[in-house]
Design goal:
This protein is an all-alpha fold. Helix content is 63%, strand content 0%. The protein contains six helices and no strands. The longest helix has 27 residues. It starts with a helix and ends with a helix.
Length: 159
């Protein structure tokens, strides 16, 4: 029993020492930046529709670590992308859609803008042709001129 406990304690101490030694290694800032950039430019094979950088899967974390190791080894961005895509498949390469794919969206936006402009023109013309109640030939009437209480207040105010 003592040997087992002693072995567990020794194994724990060795793993803590190894983790501390790995944490003390300086990280090359250029390699870290390059690895981050590559991870944002590759779709994750483990989380459909997400980039490798956005995928929370532990397997994606391992691939990100491999990418960082490749960057630290001196590989450039394209070499790293090619290596990862070769390992996981071509469907994970991010490709920009052709401009023609956005043509329908632009058409819908243009039609909506045209309809909004047409509505503004129609409403403004209707308001211009609607007779205004204040444009009569009669002189403007004092508000509430028939109210005796207000007439009394006005008289007191003027005095």
């Amino acid at each position: 029993m003592k040997n087992t406990s002693l072995g567990l304690v020794l194994a724990l101490l060795l793993s803590v020492a190894a983790t501390q030694a790995a944490a003390d290694e300086p990280i090359d800032p250029h390699a870290a930046r390059l690895a981050n950039e590559v991870a944002h430019n590759i779709l994750s094979p483990f989380c459909p529709g997400k980039t490798l950088a956005m995928c929370p899967s532990p397997a994606a974390g391992e691939v990100r670590m491999k990418i960082q190791d490749m960057a630290a080894a001196g590989m450039d961005e394209q070499q790293i992308k090619d290596a990862v895509i070769e390992e996981h498949g071509e469907e994970f390469r991010i490709v920009e859609p052709p401009w023609i794919d956005n043509l329908g969206l632009l058409g819908v936006l243009g039609a909506g803008l045209g309809l909004a402009l047409l509505a503004v023109v129609i409403i403004s013309r209707r308001r211009a042709t609607t007779p205004d109640s204040t444009s009569s030939d009669a002189p403007p009437k004092e508000p509430d001129a028939d109210d005796p209480y207000l007439a009394e207040l006005r008289k007191q105010y003027r005095d």
